[in-house]
Amino acid sequence: MAFYGAAKRVCVFISRNRSYSSSASENVNLIKQLRERTSAPIKDVKAALVDSNWDIEAAQKELRKRGKVLASKKSSRIASEGLLALAQTPAKVALIELNCETDFVARNDIFRHLALCLAKQALSLDNSSSSSSAFHVGPQSLHDTTLNLEHPKISGETTVQNAITEVAAMMGENVRLRRGYVLPASSNGFISTYLHTSPQPGLGRIAGILSLEVDDGKTQVEALQRVGSELAMHVVAAKPLFLTKELVPSDALQNEREILKSQAESSGKSQMAIEKMVEGRLRKYFEDVVFMDQKFIMNDTMNVQAVLDNLSKEVGSSVRVVNFLRMEVGEGIERQETDASETVAQVA
Questions:
Q1: pLDDT in tens, 104-144
Q2: Could you tell me if 224 and 337 are in contact, meaning their C-beta atoms sit under 8 angstroms apart?
Q3: Which of 129, 218, 269, 318 has its C-alpha lying 20 to 30 A from 227's C-alpha?
Q4: pTM for the full model?
Q5: CA atoms of 75 and 257, how far apart (whole Å)
């Protein structure tokens, strides 16, 4: 009889243990499902499920509420990492910068998808009055526009601002759209682009964009595209500030001249020699900051103007640079944190 009682207790224990194992397995499965749906941290996923009595739909709503509150709290934190995203048609190109706090989030698929969607959104903006000049796209230009993310983990139609907030909630970091530009092609020209440190098409950390114009719009396209791509790469590597010498502001030129003169006077040479030294160093300054005067990165025996002259001869028509743009993730962000939408890109 005692043996029967002990056996009965063992059976009850095994039954309860099996029931517990089954329940634990189901809970682990729910955690996995919700984690896949939201990409939220596991501890937050589990906490939301426990608070929602393991109802996955209710837990998902709870996660979104918590995440948005957390995103709001983190919105003042400096976000200097992120990606540039580029979208292009034959008529124009759009470039945006989406920031986050860490490189880890910048590698996340959802963050990258959002960046590409925002670039396409900027490309859709109409600014017909801008002709061939680049125009700035601030966050306020896009925040209230409607966006369809079409991503397995975050889809549906929403506003740009809500989409950014939701991604920030999922990532657990401050995520923000910092700035953007749209550069239209001229009537007889095209746009060349280059993205440096590009994890996938349309994304990168440094971008060079170049608008070329040719007198004969039907000339050799392949040659124009080849040299255009090389010049866009040059923009990234050489960091030009101005398109031509004539576009260097007079105050910047005067300031540079005074610095060079002060340096030359310390040599103790005659005034005539000092003037020659200043002019020589001023030419070097132009070679450093003026696009047309810079040594071409692919062949430093010639400058950019010589490259364009050779291209014009090759295609049998005059080719010129109308505009260029260089942008880098996080540039100037520490100095301009109080007004992040201000441009720090180098636009000719």
A1: 999 999 999 999 999 999 999 876 555 567 788 888 889 88
A2: no
A3: 129
A4: 0.76
A5: 43
